[in-house]
Specification:
The chain is an alpha/beta fold and about 280 residues long. About 40% of the residues lie in helices and about 20% in strands.
Length: about 280
């Protein structure tokens, strides 16, 4: 019996957005050597679906929103690599017309899921907002245009296309967060199941970083895989998306990135959005 039969095969999930398919292109397409473990075919799903799956511990390795991370720290540990975190890249509150903050209470707003970072930021920015509708991120702009909702919090590619659809920016929630916190905005990260153990989680973390570096050196080779799943196929939109959401924090969160995540989770706990974790560590050593 060969050693390969004893290789641990791990489940993995991430979103179809260009930053995730760019980051994971090499890893899931056999470009990164793996020792002692392998991957099942990747599952690509909307981030809120991944958030909900994380609540039930469905995947070994998964992308999730940092809001969702606050609910699953007892079961998952954050990797140093693969995150979407930065400045000038946060969720946007948009509408079909300009709206004053005083009018929020009587308006219906769409958010891209209960456990998204967008939902947490909106709650912190306007905690009195009651008429909230949850829907997939790619359904929000059409819902505003049709009058189903008054406004919505948009993420991903939508931030590059909303003006072309005649929508108006009400508030940049990421810029608001940066102003009140002094930190970059943590959007989403990659986590691994704690029960996998420190040694294997370390290998996974290094493999994700190697995948990021491979993509940076072979961006053209990633393009067919990215376009297979992208909502917006325009090369300019894809380039802007990757350029905004993939940065030095994606290679390694580092001290600044980890401090931003810790502060974000602290604010969420203070607002009663999720409980304190029993685990002493956010990331592996």
């Amino acid at each position: 019996m060969t050693a390969g039969l004893f290789m641990k095969q791990l489940s993995i999930g991430f979103s179809p957005c260009p930053n995730d398919t760019y980051i994971f292109c090499a890893l899931v397409n056999g470009k990164i050597p793996l020792s002692g473990w392998s991957l099942q075919p990747a599952v690509l799903e909307d981030v809120e679906t991944l958030n909900e799956w994380a609540m039930h511990g469905r995947l070994d390795i998964t992308k999730l929103s940092f809001h969702a991370l606050g609910h699953v720290l007892d079961d998952y540990v954050l990797l140093h690599s693969g995150a979407a975190l930065g400045r000038g890249c946060g969720p946007l509150l948009v509408a079909g017309r300009q709206v004053a903050p005083g009018a929020f209470a009587g308006m219906t707003v769409a958010i891209p899921g209960k456990y998204t970072t967008a939902a947490m930021l909106l709650n912190l920015y306007a905690p009195s907002w009651k008429k909230i509708v949850m829907m997939r991120f790619d359904d929000i702009m059409p819902a505003i245009e049709s009058g189903k909702v008054d406004c919505g919090v948009i993420i991903h590619e939508s931030r590059f296309t909303y003006r072309g659809r005649g929508l108006e920016l009400i508030v940049d929630l990421g810029a608001w967060w940066e102003k009140i916190s002094g930190h970059p905005i943590p959007l989403g990260g990659i986590v691994a199941r704690r029960s996998l153990g420190t040694d294997l989680i370390g290998k996974i973390d290094r493999a994700v970083k190697a995948s990021v570096l491979w993509a940076q050196q072979n961006s053209g080779l990633c393009r067919p895989y990215i376009k297979e799943y992208a909502q917006e196929l325009d090369d300019l939109v894809i380039n802007e998306h990757i350029g905004l959401y993939v940065n030095s924090f994606s290679e390694n969160l580092g001290e600044e990135g980890l401090a931003a995540v810790e502060f974000f989770l602290q604010k969420g706990r203070q607002a009663g959005m999720f409980p304190a974790s029993q685990q002493p560590s956010l990331v592996i050593p």
